């Protein structure tokens, strides 16, 4: 998954649907920097034929899409979505809490699994969950201690933590 801001659409996520069907107005949950994001699909977009999703162009609007397809999803509150995390559709309101816990569980395990208990080591930042996990595995193999991790753009808070 990739998170981007597109003029006229706002913040969007590019995803590859591996299984099932996504429909406009489906309620979805994704992992976010500050916790799970619960939102509705405002638009499902795909590139024009023979174009890439990453190339800025007019998009084809869909009412629904089936696996396996790369699609751009527009919705509210996607600004803090974590690139590389999973997306789940909420089919039953009773499952919402479990789904929210599931999407954040992968992120939490990566964020805590590699951190040194003493708080010693380097502060690691990456743009996606997958690249963070790969970097942390490399550092573990090289026996480099990690004091903290984060995903996304570097901001003042991250610089202060890295100095710590």
Explain this structure.
The protein is of the alpha+beta class. It has two domains: 103 residues, Translation factors (Elongation Factor Tu (Ef-tu), domain 3, Beta Barrel), CATH 2.40.30.10; 50 residues, Translation initiation factor IF- 2, domain 3 (Rossmann fold, 3-Layer(aba) Sandwich), CATH 3.40.50.10050. It is built from three helices and eleven strands, in the order βββββββββαβαβα. Strands 1, 2, 4, 5, 6, 8 and 9 form a seven-stranded antiparallel sheet that branches. A hairpin with a 6-residue loop joins β4 and β5. The protein is globular, with a radius of gyration of 17 Å. 24% of the residues are buried. The mean pLDDT is 87.
